[in-house]
Specification:
This protein is mainly α. It is built from 13 helices and two strands, in the order αααααββαααααααα. It has two domains: 30-119; 153-206 and 213-236, no CATH class. It starts with 31 loop residues before the first helix and ends with a helix.
Length: 236
C-alpha cells in the first residue's frame, strides 16, 4: 500500500530574513530656548527640568547661551539645584586625559563671568559648601576649588568673610574650609591673626576696649582654622 503524502509543506526559510530589523533610535534635538525658558521658571520643578535639558545635551552645553544662564541662576533658592549649577560651571574646566573637555573660547567665556564675582557671589558658593547634607552628592569639592581659584581677590574675600561676626558661623567655617581647599597661601597671615585673636581671648587675655566681645561662634572656628593653617603651611 503506498504511503500517504504529507499535507505539511516545508519551505526553506532564510534565517537572516526572519530577524526583525531594529530601527535606529532617534534622539530628539533639544530646543535651547525652550530649556532656557523652563530654567528661569518660577517653579522649582520646572527649573530642574530645564536644567536637565540644558546639561543633558552636549551641543547645548557648548552654546554660549548656557554658561550665561548658569551664571544668572547662581542665586538659585533651591540649594540642591544651585549645587548642580555650580558643578556644571566647573565642568567647563574639566580635563579629560591630557586635554580640556571644552575649547578655549568656552572656558574663556566662563572665566570672564567669574572675574566679575564679588562678595555676594562668593557667599552663594559658600552657602552650598555649608550644606553638605543636601549638596555633597551634587558638587565635588575639587570642582568648587576650580571655580574659586579663578575668582580675582577670592582669597581676600574669603578671609574677610571668615572674620565677619555678622555672618552665621556655618558660612564663616565654610570660608575657612574653602581657603584650605584651594590652597590660598596668601591667606595664611590673616587666618593666623584670626586664630591668635580667638585663642588669646580664650586664654583670658584682656581685649582692647573698642574690640567686640568674644562669643562661642569664634570658639567653634578654631578646629577648622587649625586644619586650614596646617595645610597652608605644608604648601610653603
Amino acid at each position: 500500500m503506498p504511503r500517504p503524502r504529507s499535507r505539511v509543506h516545508y519551505q526553506e526559510v532564510n534565517a537572516l530574513s526572519s530577524v526583525a530589523t531594529v530601527a535606529p533610535r532617534v534622539i530628539p534635538a533639544v530646543d535651547p530656548w525652550l530649556a532656557a525658558e523652563m530654567f528661569v521658571s518660577q517653579h522649582v520643578e520646572e527649573r530642574r527640568r530645564g536644567f536637565a535639558l540644558l546639561i543633558g545635551s552636549e551641543n547645548v552645553r557648548r552654546s554660549n547661551l548656557t554658561p550665561h544662564l548658569l551664571i544668572l541662576r547662581l542665586g538659585e533658592s533651591d540649594v540642591g539645584l544651585r549645587a548642580q549649577i555650580i558643578q556644571a560651571l566647573a565642568d567647563y574646566f574639566e580635563i579629560r586625559g591630557l586635554e580640556y573637555r571644552y575649547p578655549p573660547e568656552m572656558r574663556a567665556a566662563v572665566a570672564g563671568h567669574l572675574r566679575q564675582f564679588d562678595r555676594a557671589e562668593v557667599l552663594q558658593l559658600l552657602e552650598v559648601h555649608a550644606t553638605p547634607a543636601e549638596c555633597s552628592d551634587k558638587l565635588r569639592p575639587e570642582s568648587l576649588a576650580h571655580l574659586v581659584e579663578r575668582i580675582p581677590n577670592a582669597s581676600t574675600q574669603l578671609t574677610r568673610l571668615a572674620g565677619d561676626r555678622t555672618l552665621a558661623v556655618a558660612l564663616r567655617r565654610a570660608a575657612i574650609e574653602v581657603v584650605g581647599l584651594v590652597g590660598f597661601t596668601d591667606a595664611q597671615a590673616p587666618l593666623e591673626g584670626l586664630e591668635a585673636r580667638i585663642e588669646g581671648r580664650r586664654a583670658g587675655q584682656l581685649p582692647m576696649l573698642f574690640a567686640p566681645s568674644d562669643n562661642l561662634d569664634d570658639q567653634q572656628l578654631l578646629p577648622v582654622l587649625k586644619e586650614a593653617l596646617r595645610g597652608l603651611r605644608e604648601r610653603d
